[in-house]
Design goal:
The protein is of the alpha+beta class. The protein contains five helices and 15 strands.
């Protein structure tokens, strides 16, 4: 078994990870971060005073506590419910000790699946699923953008957070992408409207 495999096996049921999830009880009726108590984010000194959570999120959206991967879905969903972002881009998590800073490689939100669907009126829409989050949402095509390395991104949760497309989701999405008439760009078309990427 490789080094990563040993690390992941050791973390299943990790006691420290379970403690991180204690006393966190998000309400399904509240939007994300509704119960997070944050310092005044306009004051950079107060943000700088926040301690690290000891939690890392890699570019694939996998979470680790002090290097040990967190697997339990209920803990991960709770973390997302306690997540917020400062105007300068830092991610903040409110755990049982108060607010702390996450160590995030890119963004905690990763699109894991893409499906073309129709609503009750027959209008086309793209449904996206986010890794570690049980709910799905409708893609806002106006928020699509490409970043460094041609990584595809979109905004999620009413535009509050940036989400990165995983490689499988990217290939699923690529089925809907078309090249424009002059061969100098790409777009998707929904309900007769073109959305550039």
């Amino acid at each position: 078994m490789g080094k990563r495999g040993r690390r992941e096996e050791q973390t299943r049921g990790c006691g420290d990870t379970e403690k991180l999830g204690q006393n966190l009880s998000p309400s399904p009726h509240l939007p994300f971060s509704a119960s997070v108590s944050l310092p005044d984010s306009s004051k950079t000194d107060s943000i700088g005073e926040l301690e690290p959570c000891g939690i890392q999120v890699d570019e694939n959206g996998d979470w680790f506590h002090n290097g040990n991967r967190i697997f339990r879905p209920e803990i991960l969903e709770t973390f997302y419910a306690k997540l917020d972002q400062t105007p300068t881009g830092e991610f903040i998590l409110a755990d049982f000790r108060g607010a702390c800073l996450l160590d995030v490689a890119d963004t905690p939100f990763v699109v894991s699946r893409v499906d073309l669907d129709r609503d009750e009126s027959g209008r086309e829409r793209i449904i996206i699923r986010l890794k570690n989050i049980s709910r799905s949402e409708v893609l806002d095509p106006d928020t699509l953008a490409t970043g460094r390395g041609n990584i595809l991104y979109c905004r999620v949760f009413s535009g509050r957070f940036l989400a990165r497309f995983s490689r499988p989701a990217y290939y699923q999405f690529a089925e809907f992408v078309r090249e424009n008439d002059i061969g100098q760009g790409f777009y998707i078309e929904l309900n007769g409207n073109r959305y550039p990427i």
